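Q: Given only this backbone (236 positions), what sequence would you predict?
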């Protein structure tokens, strides 16, 4: 399954990066309230490096991990002070760290076919082992109840047709993108499948891994898309 190839990665970066930018102040506030004002943050599903760049600006060390090679290439240009790894979060080695983040429904995507609730439960235990006592694990998920949607968007040198088809526990997103190359536009298609998880189930898995859990509906002033949920999981 394609995982943000070069054209879709570019379009996502230039056209849809506002969520990460607007969420950044709220995310930084969560870190500071936890007493984390320096140290290493592991950014899972780092995308084009927008959040990683916001972290390096006040002096955090950052390791970004993403399964999309095109996204990693963009991230390295945007946040040169960070270190980036092209890998699935399920297989990447997690270094000892102060915090782990995964912004933008990272854990719902099935680019890695192993991804499931059982795999996430095991992964949450790995995160708990990697984070120091008092550290935090911040992320958001897409929940069941997603609306069917068709949309069109365009920019200076790109356009995209978007269709979302929800099921009971699965969301299928079909995207047809057009990116200008010289005088012409290159057409590409991707279909993304996301497993939908209930916030109560994810909170239970986090507690089973040893975390204290708080459920969020916004990162500071940036609301999460409904019916998505965010989590701040703290290692005691």
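A: Predicted residues:
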């Amino acid at each position: 399954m394609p995982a943000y190839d070069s054209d879709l990665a570019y379009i996502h970066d230039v056209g849809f990066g506002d969520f990460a930018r607007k969420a950044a102040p709220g995310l930084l506030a969560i870190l500071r309230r936890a007493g984390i004002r320096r140290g290493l943050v592991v950014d899972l599903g780092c995308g084009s490096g927008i959040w990683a760049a916001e972290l390096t600006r006040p002096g955090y060390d950052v390791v970004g991990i993403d399964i999309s090679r095109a996204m990693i290439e963009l991230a390295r240009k945007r946040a040169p002070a960070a270190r980036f790894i092209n890998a699935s979060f399920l297989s990447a080695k997690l270094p000892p760290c102060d915090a782990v983040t995964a912004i933008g429904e990272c854990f719902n995507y099935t680019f890695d076919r192993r991804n499931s609730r059982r795999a996430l439960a095991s992964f949450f235990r790995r995160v708990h082992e990697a984070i120091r006592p008092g550290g935090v694990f911040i992320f958001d998920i897409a929940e069941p109840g997603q609306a069917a949607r068709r949309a069109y968007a365009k920019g200076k040198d790109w356009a995209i047709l978007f269709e979302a088809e929800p099921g009971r526990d699965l969301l299928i997103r079909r995207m047809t993108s057009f990116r200008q190359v010289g005088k012409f536009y290159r057409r590409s298609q991707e279909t993304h499948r996301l497993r939908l998880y209930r916030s109560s189930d994810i909170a239970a898995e986090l507690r089973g891994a040893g975390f204290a859990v708080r459920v969020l509906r916004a990162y500071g002033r940036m609301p999460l898309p409904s019916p998505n949920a965010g989590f701040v999981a703290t290692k005691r």
